[in-house]
Structure formats: C-alpha cells, structure tokens
Amino acid sequence: MIRHIDPRLIFLALGAVIVFAVVRSIGVLAIPEGLGLNSRWVWGLVLGGALYLVSHLIRAARISVISMPMLGVSLRTVFSLHFAVAPWSILLPFKLDELPRWNELWRVGRSPIRALLVCAIDRSMDGVILLLLATSIAVMGSQPVYFTILLGLGLSAIGASFFLLPVLLEAVQRHLFLYNFRNDAIRLLAVVDSLRKLLISAREAFSQALPFLIVTTMGIWIMEILAVEAVLYFCFDQPAGLWSAVSVLIERAGGTWQVIWGSGGQGPVSVLTVLFLLVTVLAWVIAVPGYLARCTSEPRRAWIGHSFRQSSAGSEA
C-alpha cells in the first residue's frame, strides 16, 4: 500500500532547500549604493512583501473552505498547512509544488483521492483569470505566453469537469446496467459508481462555495498584481500599470531558478522572486510548529466522531 511521505522528511528537505536558495539569492535584495533604510527601495520591498503575504492569507482561506467539507479537517489546520508548504510554490517549477501540498492534505484528510480533488478545485479557480490575462498579453505581443495559456486552459477544463464528468459517468453506469451482465462489468459498475459519488461530493463543495471562491480568487490576483506594482514603482521607478505588472508576474513564475543560481541579475523578476521567497519562508517558520502539532489529530471531525462513539459505547456498557 502506498503511504504519504513522513512530514518530517518533507520539512527537513524544504529547510535544506530554503537555506541554499536564500544564501544563493539574498544579495538580490541588497539596498543599492547611496540609498538608506528609509529609501523608496526599502518601502517598495516592505509594501510588496505585505501585499504578497495578504494574497497568501486569502489563498489559505480559499483552500480551507474547500478542504473542510471534502476532508473533514479544521480551519486552523488547513491554514497552517498552506503556509507550511508555501515556499515550495517559489522553489519548484511547473506547478510541482502541488505534490507536497497534496501529500499533506492526504496526511491530514486520510484520503489521497479527496486530497487530489481539493488541489484540483483550488487550482482550477485560477484557470479562467490566468487564461484571460495571458491571452491579453499574447494579443498585445509583449511576450510569448503560450505555456501560460495552455495552463489556463487546462485549469479551466479541470473546473468544468466537476460538472460534466458526473453526468457522463451516470450515462456509463446506465449503459453497463442495461446492456452488460458479465462479472467484470459488475465490478466496473462499482468502480464507476464510487468515482461518480466522489465527483458529486466535489461538485457540491465547489458549487456551494462558488461565490466565496470567486471573490477570494479575484482578491488573490489583485493583491499579487498590487505587490508587483509596488516593487516596480518604488524600487525601479516604473509607472504603475496593469499589463506591465501582469507581464512581470507571469515572467517571474518561470524565472525562479535563474535567480537562485545567481544568473537573474537585479531586475524586477529577480527582486520579486527573492522577496516572495523570503515572505513565504517567514510564514513557514511561524506555521510549521503549529501544523506539526495539529496534523496528528486530523481529520478532526472523524477523530471527534470516533471518540464520541467510544464514549457512547462505554456508557451503554
């Protein structure tokens, strides 16, 4: 049986990567010669870092609202889980940060499939906005963003699948029930039924929280764009603009390793990458002890229910 990875190994590895990344890239945030601590450069870093932290607080709220009905875990645990794995979003390319997030959701929720559905719902909310922004940049011809457009399409398709696949699976079930009577068809019917029920529970969690998810997704993107604009305006004297900020934000997503290996220079992308890394590392240091203390008693609702049944059985005896 496949088991989730021990969280101590994950956080030990993450700590080692963080130390390496910070040592390699911290010089990017050095105050330029001739500027003091009260300079525009410092204010730009402080304001940009604060806005980026707010965006992560909203992200934590979004995934908490999805996880609570799907996994039966508590709000505080999911909040601390989000920040405990947040640095991976900076350090890992190509959205591979979803792997440690999925592993930890699996750990606290005791269900790999439901944890995967939580990750899919959470990330699918970014699909439409990412697709619109990347398409607009591509139309203006400011930079090639074809991979980002494909990513937005994929995420949007995942969100739509929660509403389309249960209907399709119900049709498959009906066909198997009416026209197939072999033993293997009966086993397949049970598998299809289990998958359909899982997708229906995901769809219900998705649809019931949809207004909240839309508002939080807009809030996340607004905070991240404002964080980029603050750094561009205060640190690089560039006029604030939506499309310039979005272009830099998308470019930063693919420029992490160039910065960490010391080849990214001291431009906006490099400064934003290191700034965002330090913000997530600060939150990580605060969140990890609380998360490790809470995750052993999750899913909390199942744990409370088990304790209640044991106490009821004892009293009846």
Please provide a written account of the structure.
By secondary structure, the chain is mainly α. It has one domain (7-26, 34-309). It is 80% helix and 0% strand. Helix 2 packs across helix 13. The model is unreliable at 303-317 (pLDDT under 50).
DSSP E strands, number: 0
* Quaternary: single chain
Q: What overall geometry do the principal axes of the alpha carbons give?
A: globular
Q: How many DSSP helices? A: 14
Helix content: over 70%
Termini, distance in Å? 36 Å
Give Rg in angstroms: 22 Å
Roughly what fraction of the amino acids lie in strands? under 5%
Largest sheet: none
Average pLDDT, rounded to a whole number, is 77
Order of helices and strands: HHHHHHHHHHHHHH
Poorly predicted segments: 303-317
Structural class: mainly alpha
Number of spatially distinct domains: 1
